[in-house]
Structure to design on (295 residues):
């Protein structure tokens, strides 16, 4: 059974919850071939996916995200495998729950669908809602404790994902948007506008992930906390800003340096912390050790 009520009680206690790090880039380091979407490995290489879950759990993660960031039918259709939508999401949830074995909460991960909504693109809002609802339902059927909508750039898409999830489940919903060093998302959304628009929709937590290094994330958390003081805030930044080396994005921030920045995010008001691109289980372990020292 989902540990939903336990998660909500944890958040209400105002304790800090340590999440995990990136999934896709870590699976690539484990051999995920170029051109294959990570979600396919839920069905084809469940041992690899489970190994990643366990690496974060062993590092101290108290909440892990399922390997379903690109698991909407719209995103999977672009990869040529829309038929695996329901099964891949359900299997990701099953594998995560089995790996966690009660020692961490499992969040069903929902990322952007990869298409711009009207009027900036051709995707109708109702089509986005339907796609997110299908994914949310599959994750809920798989037994996750909550849903985590992440790396959103546009408020309209974030709202479509929240609406779709609420149509099919009453699981708690977390939502994080991706803010750049400029302090805005690629679609121009500020932290203040994001939190004042999304928090009243009944979220369990809201904040930022990806898009920026932790030194910039501190400012995002501060701005959100000032605009919506009662909100439970998320800080899951990249391990610094990337640089290209041999056509690969390299992140240079060490686990120890990132852990210090995460403490600053906590002091700014973040209650759920972790890492995104460039992070690793080592980064999560260092965060946990730093958090333990400050209580």
């Amino acid at each position: 059974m989902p540990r939903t009520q336990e998660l909500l009680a944890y958040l209400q206690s105002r304790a800090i919850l340590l999440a995990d790090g990136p999934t896709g880039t870590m699976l690539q380091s484990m051999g995920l071939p170029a051109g294959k979407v990570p979600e396919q490995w839920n069905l084809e290489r469940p041992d690899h996916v489970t190994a990643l879950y366990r690496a974060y759990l062993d590092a101290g993660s108290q909440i892990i995200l399922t390997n379903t960031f690109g698991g909407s039918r719209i995103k999977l259709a672009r990869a040529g495998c829309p038929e695996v939508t329901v099964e891949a999401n359900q299997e990701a949830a099953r594998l995560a729950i089995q790996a966690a074995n009660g020692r961490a909460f499992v969040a069903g991960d929902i990322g952007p669908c990869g298409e711009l909504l009207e009027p900036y693109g051709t995707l109708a809002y109702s089509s986005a809602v339907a796609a997110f609802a299908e994914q949310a339902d599959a994750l809920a059927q798989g037994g996750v404790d909550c849903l985590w909508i992440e790396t959103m750039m546009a408020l309209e898409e974030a709202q479509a994902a929240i609406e779709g999830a609420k149509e099919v489940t009453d699981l708690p919903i977390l939502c994080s948007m991706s803010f750049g060093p400029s302090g805005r998302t690629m679609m121009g959304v500020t932290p203040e506008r994001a939190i004042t628009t999304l928090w009243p929709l009944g979220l369990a937590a809201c904040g930022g992930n990806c898009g920026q290094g932790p030194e910039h994330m501190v400012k995002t958390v501060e701005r959100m906390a000032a605009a919506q003081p009662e909100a439970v805030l998320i800080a899951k930044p990249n391990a610094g800003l990337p640089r290209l080396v041999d056509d690969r994005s390299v992140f240079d921030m060490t686990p120890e340096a990132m852990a210090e920045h995460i403490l600053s995010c906590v002091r700014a008001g973040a209650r759920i912390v972790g890492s995104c691109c460039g992070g690793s289980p080592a980064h999560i372990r260092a965060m946990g050790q730093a958090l333990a020292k400050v209580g």
